[in-house]
Write a structure and sequence with these properties.
By secondary structure, the protein is of the alpha+beta class. Helices cover about 35% and strands about 25% of the residues. Helix 5 packs across helix 9 (about 245-260). The longest helix has 18 residues, at about 25-45. The radius of gyration is 18 Å and the shape is globular.
């Protein structure tokens, strides 16, 4: 079967009738995603808003007007979101978001199209594996349509004490380090103290990671060197990189099966 361009607006995936996954269509939907981000990051997770964010109750910055926003909507309400920053959007602002924490020069030099993921969150009422899978299906459709070769971005561990996260950081370093061509490390003035030799149970430590980070690892993601403490968002961040070959191929097979059944 010949390659088919897939619309990022309407996705050929089996999802509940009252839920759809697509790109934001207008400013109102983008604002709804920013309101969701504010509720999750600031009210739930304890991030520290600037005065403007606190007054508006919106999480927004210079990337929002130039990037794309992937949404999960239930009966028209935004219940999940992902922010997608490509080379064009990064150039409009000056660099990718994660460049404020990590040296990502090797990732930026990666040939072809690359995409930075960020600001991923889901409303607590819809925070289940199914919603995350739907967002990933939407992301897979976008990858196929736009021929994205590499995904990357900051992934967060809760809390700002690297010592308390020593087992998790050591597990990521020991089992999922990036190859040389995807090398990344914290900017010198942002680097957190990271653990040396740590005794940990690999299975239990993997299970203790945040669900989104575990999902990236299961998809084949690798983790850059070191970590950065983000006091504003009350997190400790690592840099995740993922070649898209496997994701795109899996999605294309699923898409082809849907087309064949509909024929």
């Amino acid at each position: 079967m010949t390659h088919q361009m897939i619309s990022s607006d309407i996705l050929p995936v089996a999802i509940p009738e009252n839920v759809e996954v697509r790109l934001a269509r207008d400013a109102a939907e983008i604002e709804a995603s920013q309101a969701l981000r504010y509720r999750v990051f600031y009210e739930e997770m304890g991030a520290k808003p600037c005065p403007q964010s606190a007054a508006s109750r919106l999480d927004r910055d210079a990337y929002d007007p130039v990037c794309r926003h992937l949404l999960a909507l239930a009966d028209g309400e935004v219940v999940g979101t992902y922010r997608l920053i490509d080379r064009r959007a990064a150039a409009a602002v000056g660099n990718f978001y994660s460049a404020s924490e990590f040296d990502i020069s090797a990732l930026v030099a990666y040939p072809g199209e690359i995409l930075e993921l960020g600001r991923s969150c889901v409303d607590p009422r819809w925070r289940n594996r199914g919603t995350l899978q739907m967002l990933w299906q939407g992301l897979a459709a976008y990858i196929v349509e736009h021929r994205i070769g590499l995904l990357f971005g900051c992934a967060s561990l809760p809390g700002t004490d690297p010592a308390a996260l020593a087992a998790q950081l050591a597990y990521l370093r020991d089992n999922h380090s990036t190859p040389h061509e995807l090398w990344a490390e914290p900017l010198p003035y942002r680097a957190a103290a990271t653990p040396g030799a740590v005794d940990y149970d690999p299975r239990a430590t993997l299970q203790s990671l945040p669900p989104l980070l575990k999902g990236y690892l299961r998809a084949g993601a690798c983790i850059g060197t070191g970590a950065v403490v983000d006091h504003d968002f009350n997190t400790t961040d690592v840099l995740v990189a993922l070649r898209t070959d496997t994701i795109a191929a899996r999605y294309q097979r699923r898409y082809d099966a849907v087309v064949e059944r509909a024929a």
